[in-house]
């Protein structure tokens, strides 16, 4: 949960200059797929209801911003190359920052540096 705490701090520090949104996408490490130990018990989403239910686990962690759910055809994940996770900064419809593929390329500090320049 360290990454979530770092993300929450970004929201807290920059909510005056940026709108934050989490798009919950397909589960990268589902229990019935490529699972890790010490991970949440979430099966692959077979319906939108499954995905909404899984997203509630994140919502309960209070990410400090709205959480929306990708469609079952994964349009957002495909458009943004987001699986398993990725950070973006957009301004006026243009991508200012496209983070690397998570978890290795997930660097909230890079977003912090960009938002500090904007602020």
UniProtKB/TrEMBL annotation:
Q: Does the keyword Cytoplasm apply?
A: no
Its GO biological process annotations read: hormone biosynthetic process; thyroid hormone catabolic process
List keywords of the entry alphabetically.
Oxidoreductase, Selenocysteine, Thyroid hormones biosynthesis
Gene Ontology terms, MF aspect: thyroxine 5'-deiodinase activity
**Which region is the signal sequence?**
none
Which Pfam families does this UniProt record tie to the protein? Answer: T4_deiodinase (PF00837)
The reaction(s) annotated as catalysed by this protein in its Swiss-Prot or TrEMBL entry are: 3'-iodothyronamine + iodide + A + H(+) = 3',5'-diiodothyronamine + AH2; 3,3'-diiodo-L-thyronine sulfate + iodide + A + H(+) = 3,3',5-triiodo-L-thyronine sulfate + AH2; 3-iodo-L-thyronine + iodide + A + H(+) = 3,3'-diiodo-L-thyronine + AH2; 3,3'-diiodo-L-thyronine sulfate + iodide + A + H(+) = 3,3',5'-triiodo-L-thyronine sulfate + AH2
Q: Which Gene3D superfamilies match?
A: Glutaredoxin (3.40.30.10)
- Xref: InterPro entries: Iodothyronine_deiodinase
Q: Does the keyword Ribonucleoprotein apply?
A: no
Role description:
Responsible for the deiodination of T4 (3,5,3',5'-tetraiodothyronine).
Q: Which family does it belong to?
A: Belongs to the iodothyronine deiodinase family.
Which named protein is this?
Iodothyronine deiodinase
């Amino acid at each position: 949960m360290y990454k979530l705490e770092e993300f929450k701090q970004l929201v807290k520090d920059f909510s005056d200059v940026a709108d934050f949104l989490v798009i919950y996408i397909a589960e990268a490490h589902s229990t019935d797929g490529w699972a890790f130990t010490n991970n949440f018990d979430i099966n692959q989403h077979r319906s939108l209801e499954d995905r909404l239910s899984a997203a509630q686990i994140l919502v309960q962690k209070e990410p400090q911003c709205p959480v929306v759910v990708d469609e079952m055809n994964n349009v957002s994940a495909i458009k943004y190359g987001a699986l398993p996770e990725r950070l973006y900064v957009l301004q006026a419809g243009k991508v200012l920052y496209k983070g690397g593929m998570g978890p290795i390329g997930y660097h909230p500090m890079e977003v912090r540096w960009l938002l500090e320049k904007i602020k």
